[in-house]
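Entry, Tuesday afternoon. Goal for today is a structural model of the target with flavin-adenine dinucleotide bound, before we commit to ordering more compound. Inputs were pasted exactly as handed over by J.K., no edits. I checked the ligand SMILES twice against the vendor sheet because last time a stereocentre got dropped in transcription.
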Amino acid sequence: MSEKTILVWFRNDLRIHDNEILLEATQKASTIVPVFIFDPRYFRETIFNTKKTGGFRAQFLLESVADLKKSLQKLGGDLLVLQGNPEELIPQICEKYNVNEVYHHREVASEETDISSKVEDALWKKQINLKHFIGHTMYHKEDLPFPIKDIPDVFTVFRKKTEREGIIRPAFESPQKITVPKDLEETTLPSLEDLGAEHNRTDHRTAIKFKGGETEGLARLKYYLWDTDLLKTYKKTRNGLIGADYSSKFSAWLSAGCLSAREVYWEIKKYEQERGANDSTYWLIFELLWRDYFRFMFKKHGTQFFMEGGFKGKENEHAENQEELFEKWKNAETGIPFIDANMKELNLTGFMSNRGRQNVASYLVKDLKVNWTWGAAYFEEKLIDYNPASNWGNWAYVAGVGNDPRENRHFNIEKQADDYDPKGEYRKLWLEN
Ligand SMILES: Cc1cc2nc3c(=O)[nH]c(=O)nc-3n(C[C@H](O)[C@H](O)[C@H](O)COP(=O)(O)OP(=O)(O)OC[C@H]3O[C@@H](n4cnc5c(N)ncnc54)[C@H](O)[C@@H]3O)c2cc1C
């Protein structure tokens, strides 16, 4: 191993397992400098009068970073935790610890790639290379049966060919030992106040008490597969609305990278071998493929996903009083119990089921005729599991300006409530307490 120092820049990959940048850095360098930076741009107000990161997700992020720091310490290392702009801080850290190269996982959405471009430029001036890795999806983009620009805009077409011809690489092993500079500065985590984030108390009716970090994410994976066999019935239960177990609840850990999607895939494969495969075990992989898909779509269509016309460039109809209607939707005051119950759950817990999300999004766009990007920005603030591709990709889909091949799909909210909440238990839970 050469006398080399590599800076490992953690972003949305807050884990030790299946983490190529961490493993390769420990293999290629004698010393590594693991860094996480709380960037103030992620905690500011947006043009939509929302916050980029609300209190629930900020808390989850703090817990995830704390867990990562602890795990790195257990391996003999540590994590530098800083607050500021990465393009200013990373070159400074490089100077201080004589860093030769910086590693990070490439992101897909424009704000994230703008930041890494700025870091790359700043490092370039110091003749230090920023090496990009791919590490957020099950499928590595190079193992897909098409280049990104040719990925079909219809999911089913993408899925069929990918399932037939794509391969999923094995997960990376975890490093056994981390060596950091002897004089590595001791740092502590900021508080919610330092980040400018609010304290949100989670309502006791929450579907699940999310706690950030790889340790909790891996524990949830073990629970859902091995301890309870819930995976075996996932396809039947996944459209549920109440409680921790109707779906995997992996999303928040996947979004922060506390769980690797590829690790989840291989664990499901192991489960299938040991306890049997069925349509439920397949269906969780199917849903994870949606997650991959939206990420690849972001790579293909770029910022168009943030525009109201989407990549279809469609005109949308707006109600004259859309501002007023939007306020009612946000505040769970539409008068439609199924919508209000879901919005209340989101506001008080930072989570909403997939069924709920489909309905409230469709209702905002198709019934209230409000600009869908406002709803997406509101979800961005509130959701614990927010990530740009899954959120904006799904919103564009529901709004009919993204990947939905069917024209004018419109949820009948009353029918949805009857089908998925036949006894009204979910509505009662959130509206009568
Ligand atoms: C309007 C709207 C906005 C959404 N915003 C987000 C978001 O910001 N972050 C996010 O992770 N998911 C988002 N989703 C997708 C989905 O609702 C959540 O991933 C899911 O409800 C999380 O619960 P779970 O982990 O128990 O899901 P499960 O049903 O157990 O699914 C397993 C995993 O598959 C992935 N997945 C499932 N459905 C989808 C989907 N439609 N699109 C992409 N990935 C999917 C997730 O990673 C999920 O954790 C959104 C859906 C809609 C309709």
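The first strand starts at residue 5 and ends at 10.
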